[in-house]
């Protein structure tokens, strides 16, 4: 069948075509590969109580004996009913084995192949995409909206609501691996058991990255000129015990990094080109914001900002109470300036 796009995978899993006897699930998101494989396996064996209905094979073993896959798939179940062959794709090619399966009579079992990231030209992927009796399902880090759906699914199952600030913090705190992200949300739901809804304090208490992500969100909002988002982020951080002075320190480090990279931009390189060469300096969620700031802020403006942020850090060290007010004022000033300056 035709190659299935990432947006069409859920629809395929909900109703796999009857003529498909082999499904390849692949991609860089190992957690999503595992989650979708489990979902398809549960559907394939739904209603079966045969302990021998599931057969697990290692891909390299199958590659050593290509005929084994077709033999297993066409073996009739001892007690009748559905069967599933799960194959963990290894380093050796499985084309011969899969060609033998797809080229013969319709098998009695569904074959499920689980693999890592495969290039478009990979022979196994190409075979599954072109055969009318196979399908290839890509698993990439959560597309837009998928993270929110995951959160909604787990909250609904736990019977919990969530405050808007808590949702924003939770969504920003989850990593790219789907399975790990689901585990974090389930852990949060367990922590909040007995409450009517999850608050930002709950997220900060359970999700390890929440505090750091909140700081990053505040810093990025300041450099992008989004004063409203900055105020909301500072409010959440303060409620979780993170004062504005800590955010100023993060903003100073960010400004120093941007200033160093800005020299390359002003030497004639594009902001995207500079980011592609230095993207490792930023968390993957911040790369777009960092690229925009790199293109908008001149070296001179960054130098002035570094001095102002450094003065605010020094004020915080001299007088804690006064320093917090200075920190908040300098961050808001930064956001207002960014909004007014041409981009």
Evaluate the radius of gyration.
26 Å
- Any guess at the CATH architecture of the largest domain? 3-Layer(aba) Sandwich
CATH topology of the largest domain: Rossmann fold
Q: Point out poorly predicted stretches.
A: none
Let me know the largest β-sheet.
5 strands, parallel
- Write out the CATH superfamily name of the largest domain: P-loop containing nucleotide triphosphate hydrolases
Helicity range: 55-70%
End-to-end distance: 47 Å
How many domains make up the coordinates?
A: 3
Strand order of the largest sheet: 2-3-4-1-5
Large-scale geometry: elongated
CATH class of the largest domain: Alpha Beta
Number of helical stretches of at least 4 residues: 17
Beta-strand residue percentage: 5-15%
How would you state the average pLDDT, rounded?
Answer: 85
Structural class by helix and strand composition? alpha/beta
- What sequence of helices (H) and strands (E) makes up the elements? HEHEHHEHEHEHEHHEHHHHHHHH
Number of strands: 7
What brief labels describe this structure?
two-stranded parallel ribbon; 17 helices; alpha/beta; Rossmann fold; 60% helix; five-stranded parallel sheet; Zinc Finger, Delta Prime, domain 3; 343 residues
Secondary structure layout:
Elements: H1 9-14, E1 22-26, H2 30-44, E2 54-58, H3 59-64, H4 67-73, E3 83-88, H5 95-103, E4 109-114, H6 123-130, E5 134-138, H7 146-158, E6 161-162, H8 164-173, H9 178-191, E7 197-198, H10 200-206, H11 210-224, H12 227-239, H13 244-266, H14 271-278, H15 287-296, H16 299-318, H17 320-340
Parallel strand pairs: 1-4, 1-5, 2-3, 3-4, 6-7
Helix pairs in contact: 4-5, 7-9, 8-10, 8-11, 11-12, 11-13, 11-17, 12-17, 13-14, 13-15, 13-16, 13-17, 14-15, 16-17
